Amino acid sequence: MAKELKANSEVILHKIKILKDGRHPIALRVTYLRKRKYYGIGERANEEEWKEINARRPGKDFKKIRKKIDEFEDRAEKVMDQLGNKEIPFSFENFEKQFFRSKNSVTVFSYFDLLIDDLLKQKKIGNADVYRDTKNALVEFRKKKDLTFDDITYSFLCRLETFLGSSNAINSISIRMRTIRAAYNRAVKDGVAKKENYPFDDYKTKQEATPKRAIRKEQIQLINNYEAAVLSKKWYAKTYFIFSYLCQGMGYSDLAFLKWSDIRDGRIEYKRVKTISTSKNPQFISIKITDQIQEILDHFRNFKTDYDDYIFPILKKGMEPRTIKNTIKSKRKKFNSHLKEICAEVGIEGDITSYVARHTWATVLKRNGVPISLISQGMDHKLEKTTGIYLGNHDYENLDKANEGLL
Asked: Which of 30, 72, 108, 322 is the most exposed place for a label (fewest CB within 10 A)?
């Protein structure tokens, strides 16, 4: 039997990454078969500080960091020895399970770093950004002092909520707290946090109802009748907004990802970007292509092939996930700006953005007497959390009929 090649580890100054303050994260680097993975230890330093940390006699400010480094290196070495002794083949997955299970004092900051890295590898850029922003909020609240999951108690969460409340809206605070809860749940599964200390049975996240922004059907018609030179910036803004409205309030990200291959048998069938990343079994939304929708689609039939199979010239083939996210964010901002200019010219007041199409579609149908249950399903909202009711063929027919009177 061939001898198992042993992995090795070392805590290093991860110079490839540069943090906002110009310093670098200190990370445990594990190497196996020429592959490397990095696990943050929740500390940072510049090159001069790194020299002080590794000095024969570190100064008072660096002793704790040096001790922490030694603990990480010792624990990593023991885990790698344990894997060998148990004759379990080394893999980074096995290492992570043992390493993070071997001591319940794994730091919250380092665990967040691990989750962020996992999300980036899965190309879930948006989710990774949410976890990174949440970690940064914790770092600010703690004044850069790391903590363990045992430190996250009911009173800790209440203090954190008060701290965040000084500069954040209720829903922004809710996102941070729900992200911490999700990280805690994952930590329990990984053996990093103790279920008996779980603080979220008592602490409940607060959320404020988002004001529904909708305009009247007559105002939609004003936008639709707005005259703009074909392929001008305002033409795109008007066209995207009307298409979104006609397609049951299709979100801008879904519009950007929409492909010609999503058109089948006279229908647009797609899965929402949001539910693909958050649901284990995302459902298709199916929309009948009306004459008005078809007219818009016909405008985009002859675009250059560098847009791949995308219907609208928002994304291009070969884009990296981070580039895709930034492109959608940037182009949506410009779209909203041009849409507001159109609304100002036709006399529509208020903060009109891409989201208004979604709320207006629902409001127009409601005013036309369409049942709320049918509207909710058309927006891809679950009506019953336990069973998950979705559209059947009969519902599609009713929704198709309701969509005929949008303009």
From this structure: 322
Contacts of 383 (CB under 8 A, 6+ apart): 373, 376, 377, 389
Residue 390's SS3 state is coil
User: Do residues 167 and 215 touch, judged by C-beta distance below 8 A?
Assistant: no
Decide: 298 and 239 in contact? Cβ < 8 Å.
no
Question: Which residue type occupies 248?
Answer: Q
Name the packing angle between helices 170-189 and 108-121 (round to 10°): 90
* Tokens 């609304």, located at residue: 343
Structure tokens, 47: 């090159």
Model confidence band, residue 139 (pLDDT cutoffs 50, 70, 90): very high
Q: Positive or negative, the Cα torsion across 22, 25, 29, 35?
A: negative
CB-based burial label for 200 (10 Å; 0-12, 13-18, 19+)? middle
Tokens of 358: 């979604």
Q: Who has greater pLDDT, 117 or 242?
A: 242
Which positions ≥6 away from 155 have C-beta within 8 Å? none
What the block records as the tokens of 356 is 């208004």
DSSP3 helix / strand / coil % (the chain, rounded to 5): 55, 10, 35
Of 11, 5, 2, 1, the residue nearest 35 (C-alpha): 5
CB contact at 8 A, 199 and 157: yes
CA distance 204 to 218: 42
Decide if pLDDT at 304 tops 80: no
Residue 386 has pLDDT above 50, yes or no: no
Whole-number Å distance between alpha carbons of 335 and 353: 8
How far apart are alpha carbons 242 and 193 in whole angstroms?
49
φ, ψ of residue 287 in degrees (nearest 5): -125, 130
CA distance 252 to 26: 39
